[in-house]
């Protein structure tokens, strides 16, 4: 099974590929606000995943050392999601709200697909 750093590295590669597709879509289609919303949402979603990876490492260290267990950064990730949506709401001419929300969820979709592919390969 992969550790969190390897999973996050794959997430970053997927994000860069997605951002390249969004840049192409933004430049060559009439749906600039949709592609910009997906890009902003994916950026903030990957940031949330990075926060989760950092907090899980800290959580694991606390458990192994027998120290008090801290939070997993739920409030910070929630605030980051609110910030992405606030950007989309405040600039509706540039960012599509629904695509921003979809972009926020894309890193978790990538994670789910990666787990399915890993499971199929290990059969």
Automatic annotation (TrEMBL):
InterPro entries found in the cross-reference section: ATP_synth_I (IPR005598), ATP_synth_I_Bacilli (IPR039072)
Keywords carried by this UniProt record: Cell membrane, Membrane, Transmembrane, Transmembrane helix
Any single Pfam family the record assigns to this protein: ATP-synt_I
Statement: the UniProt record of this protein carries the keyword Transmembrane: yes
GO cellular component: plasma membrane
Cellular compartments annotated: Cell membrane
Transmembrane segments: 35-53, 74-91, 97-117
Topology class, membrane: Multi-pass membrane protein
Coiled-coil intervals: none
Protein name: ATP synthase I
Species whose genome carries this gene: Lysinibacillus macroides
Classification lineage: Bacteria, Bacillati, Bacillota, Bacilli, Bacillales
């Amino acid at each position: 099974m992969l550790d969190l750093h390897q999973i996050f590295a794959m997430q970053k590669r997927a994000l860069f590929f997605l951002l390249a597709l969004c840049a192409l879509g933004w430049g060559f289609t009439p749906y600039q606000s949709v592609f910009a919303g997906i890009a902003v949402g994916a950026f903030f979603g990957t940031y949330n995943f990075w926060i989760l990876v950092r907090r899980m490492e800290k959580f694991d260290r606390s458990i192994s050392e027998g120290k008090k267990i801290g939070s997993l950064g739920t409030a910070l990730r929630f605030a980051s999601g609110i910030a992405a949506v606030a950007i989309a709401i405040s600039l509706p001419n540039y960012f599509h709200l629904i695509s921003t929300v979809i972009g926020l969820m894309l890193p978790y979709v990538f994670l789910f697909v990666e787990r399915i592919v890993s499971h199929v390969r290990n059969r």
